Amino acid sequence: MNDLEKARKTINETDKEMARLFSERMNAIKDVAAYKAEHGLPVFDATREAEVVARGASLIEDEEIREYYVNFLKYTMELSKQYQHRLMSGVRVAYSGVEGAFAHIAATRIFPDGEHVSYGGFIDAYNAVVAGDCDCAVLPIENSYAGEVGQVMDLMFGGSLYVSGVYSLRITHNLLGVPGARVEDIKTVISHPQALDQCAGYIRRHGFEQKRAVNTAMAAKEVAEKGYMSTAAIASAETAALYGLAVLDHDINESATNTTRFAVFSRVENTKKRDENNNFMLLFTVKNVSGSLAKAIDVIGKYGFNMKVLRSRPMKELAWQYYFYVEAEGDESSEKGREMLEELSKNCDMLKIVGTYSMETELKQEKG
């Protein structure tokens, strides 16, 4: 047997073993996809992919070959994602609003292969997951312009679902009109009150009359159906495409940092392995004793957990009583985390971890 035949024999044997390992890897992907579907996690996980590439690259000593192996890993993970997309195509994702609304845009960005189910309100979308009609729900928790979404906060406090991920979507408002209309033709604008507020300067400068709508997508739908050249909607570029409208002017909101944070809610707590990017959401009530809130905050800091968010919400059933919402960096399931929660429970009447998530992901929106 010459050198060429020996090399080909080695390649054939290696390919046979690689085929076996590839099948084993793809079978494990089924379990990954099932876990993600159950816990409301998206297919793409940038942190995990970076870890796989770094770990794999470290196993190759030959620098020249290492470069090719990294490319091999990236292609393998691309195939893995394609398979996961196929397996998760039946995931039912609840959202509040109508097709084209910002909640719908967020849901389609997070779960591009899911079945996106519209509900009339936050409570209905949340309860659809509780009842098992949907696998997860994508709901807004905070807007940089308008603040927290109180109703969703209250659902966290009183409900049974867990948060498995947090995503931010920059809200870009556009002026949408029927094809052929121009900005100078517009006399009236229609949109959600919050969108009208966020574009108040633009509306004032153009002297537009205002009309309120349930949400931005419904405003666009109304403009499309009536077909008036003098009426425009304030909504997203995606909504324009959906209802056959033209973008007459784009980025008309006053604040360039207008962003909404969305959370994914599922029935099962996310037990994925924690890392240095871990964040957790904590809800608690304190005992009616002087200094109890200050003590609770001190306990969280004492164990090295950095609070990014701290806010209070009134308890609906008890007048002048409040619960507190915290988002903090760190692993609450670690030894320090368990010690922190144990000590915190001594100062609190109620203590609840409502969710954990890795790095907050920024969702991309189409440009007008």
Can you say what the CATH homologous superfamily of the largest domain is? ACT domain
Strand percent estimate:
25-35%
Could you give the order of the helices and strands?
Answer: HHHEHEHEEHEEEHHEHEHEEEHEEHEE
- Category by helix and strand content: alpha/beta
Distance between the termini: 65 Å
Q: Which sheet architecture does the biggest sheet show?
A: 7 strands, mixed
Find the count of extended strands (DSSP E, 2+ residues). Answer: 16
Radius of gyration: 25 Å
Identify low-pLDDT runs.
none
CATH domain class name of the largest domain: Alpha Beta
- Count the DSSP helices: 12
Can you describe what's shown?
The chain has three domains: 3-39 and 44-87, Chorismate Mutase Domain, subunit A; 92-170 and 259-363, 2-Layer Sandwich (Alpha-Beta Plaits), CATH 3.30.70.260; 174-249, Periplasmic binding protein-like II (D-Maltodextrin-Binding Protein, domain 2, 3-Layer(aba) Sandwich), CATH 3.40.190. Helix content is 42%, strand content 26%. It has helices spanning 3-39, 46-58, 63-87, 102-110, 122-130, 150-158, 193-198, 200-206, 216-226, 237-243, 292-302, 335-345; strands spanning 92-96, 115-119, 136-143, 147-148, 162-170, 174-177, 188-191, 209-212, 231-235, 246-249, 259-266, 279-286, 306-314, 322-329, 348-357, 361-363. Strands 1, 2, 3, 4, 5, 11 and 16 form a seven-stranded mixed beta sheet that branches. The protein has a five-stranded mixed beta sheet with strand order 8-7-9-6-10. The chain has a four-stranded antiparallel beta sheet with strand order 13-14-12-15, sandwiched between helices. The protein is globular and about 85 Å long. 37% of the residues are buried. The model has no long low-confidence stretch (mean pLDDT 88).
